[in-house]
Amino acid sequence: MTKKTPKGRVPSLIGGTNGRPVREDVLRRSKCYRCEDELVAGTSCVAIPKNGAFTSKRRVCDACYQAILKQTSDDLEELRRL
Question: Judging by DSSP bridges, how do beta strands 57-60 and 22-25 pair with one another?
Fold first, then answer.
């Protein structure tokens, strides 16, 4: 499956309202919510909790998670400059 280019702004973890990301094992095939790349069973991914009343988590592949971490780091650097 070809990887889709994620659209929109890369999310940041700086808000803290989403909760703490955790690394999870993929038990059945699913997709990365950003690029829709296939997450194969038996591999690991990063699960970011959604904010709100529900306890569901958004799963992301390692490449998308690295982009999210970079965006979070950039946001923190911008706050430090203020």
Answer: unpaired
Pairing mode, strands 44-49 and 22-25? antiparallel
Q: Tokens representing 6? A: 């994620």
- Tell me the residue type at 62: D
pTM of the model: 0.79
Tell how strand 44-49 and strand 57-60 pair up.
Answer: antiparallel
Three-point CA angle 57, 63, 64, nearest 5°: 45
If you average pLDDT over every residue of the chain, what do you get? 85
Between 52 and 41, the more confident residue is 41
Which tokens belong to 77? Answer: 């650097």
